[in-house]
Write a structure and sequence with these properties.
The chain is α/β, with parallel strands linked by helices and about 325 residues long. The chain folds into two domains: about 70 residues, Transferase, Pyrimidine Nucleoside Phosphorylase, Chain C (Transferase, Pyrimidine Nucleoside Phosphorylase, Chain A, domain 3, Up-down Bundle), CATH 1.20.970; about 250 residues, Nucleoside phosphorylase/phosphoribosyltransferase catalytic domain (Pyrimidine Nucleoside Phosphorylase, Chain A, domain 2), CATH 3.40.1030. The chain is built from 16 helices and seven strands. About 55% of the residues are buried. One of its GO terms (molecular function) is magnesium ion binding.
Length: about 325
């Protein structure tokens, strides 16, 4: 791609004009191929951030990232991911990672996409490592895990190798950019169903609209009224249900799950070790707000893939998977 294309796009964004899908795709393609300078990457990302990233820009960028990622082969018709955008600064334990394991214990095939901490105190890769799960596996080992035990961890650093061309610039910028919204849109195993948490209503609306154009079978794009990028029991959770390109909005309350309200301050973990300890205790059967929050999130995942017809029925299934020891056993399999 001619380098003048970057300057054209930067000028365009600075004038408040959105880039097109193909235009964005070509620019991200150049970045990930090592054909763009750090200055070009940095200036474009900042110009897009200043303008506000558009839905078509997310779609084009996701298409480019998907072309560059290492794919995980599998034969599952239904495959769930619980990767969210992060960035809510809620300092909670790794809720979506725990949900992925409980969902797998309920018989759903799960390809959990994730990374080390970026905007949080503990990332999914950090907590899984703490739980004894090998996170640096190559694509063949990841595929084998998914095939044999019905769950795998797709470590973004390993399976998106082309991101090495932008990681330095992103670190130097030190702010959230377009790339922070792309992780959930680029699952290396091509997840068909997504429970996707977002940190703001703006991000929620944009990500839902992007998913509608990216051929995901179905997604619940969720945002808690308390600011959490999770299904929250602290007040209500808004869920945009994206199915076959169409969007419907639901509002869920703790009562819908048959659960009591939970303040998010009860869910904090200061580091991966604390987060891992909370998850172990949940899987050992310890009751309380952390467990209830995982049950609620898993219930949403079960409803999403039609394992249950209501959130309360789904919450019962999730509770059974924990109480029976199935979730603890699934974690042990993943670690092995």
């Amino acid at each position: 791609m001619p380098m003048s294309s970057f300057q054209t796009a930067i000028d365009q964004a600075k004038q408040g004009k959105d880039l097109g899908i193909q235009q964005t795709s070509d620019l991200i393609d150049a970045m990930l191929s090592g054909l763009a300078s750090d200055d070009e990457i940095g200036h474009l990302l900042l110009a897009l951030k200043e303008k506000g990233e558009a839905v078509d820009e997310l779609v084009g960028a996701a298409q480019a990232m998907r072309r560059h990622m290492t794919r995980i082969s599998h034969s599952h018709d239904v495959l769930l991911d619980t990767c969210g955008t992060g960035g809510s600064e809620s300092r909670t334990f790794n809720i979506s990672t725990a949900i992925a394991i409980v969902a797998a214990a309920c018989g759903i095939a799960v390809a959990k996409h994730g990374n080390r901490k970026a905007t949080s105190l503990t990332g999914s890769a950090d907590v899984l490592e703490e739980l004894g799960v090998p996170i640096e596996s190559d694509a063949d080992s990841v595929a084998k895990s998914l095939d044999q035990i019905g769950i795998c961890f797709c470590f973004a650093v390993k399976l998106h190798p082309a991101m090495k061309h932008v990681v330095g610039v992103r670190r130097k910028l030190g702010v959230k950019t377009l790339f922070n919204l792309l992780g959930p849109l680029c699952n290396p195993a091509g997840a068909t169903h997504q429970l996707l948490g977002t940190s703001s209503t703006d991000a929620q609306n944009k990500v839902a609209a992007a998913i509608a154009k990216l051929n995901t079978q179905r997604a619940f794009v969720v945002h808690g009224a308390d600011g959490q990028d999770e299904v929250s029991l602290d007040g209500s959770t808004t869920a945009i249900d994206v199915i076959s390109g169409k969007q419907t909005t639901h509002v869920w309350t703790p009562a819908d799950f048959g659960l009591l309200p939970v303040g998010r301050e009860a869910l904090t973990a200061e580091n991966p070790a604390q987060s891992a300890s909370i998850i172990r205790r949940i899987f050992d059967g310890e009751p309380g707000p952390c467990r209830d929050t995982v049950v609620a999130g898993t219930a949403a995942a079960l409803l999403l893939v039609e394992k249950a017809s209501s959130l309360s029925d789904a919450a019962t299934l999730a509770t059974d998977a924990i109480d029976s020891g199935a979730a603890k056993a699934k974690l042990a399999e993943l670690a092995k």
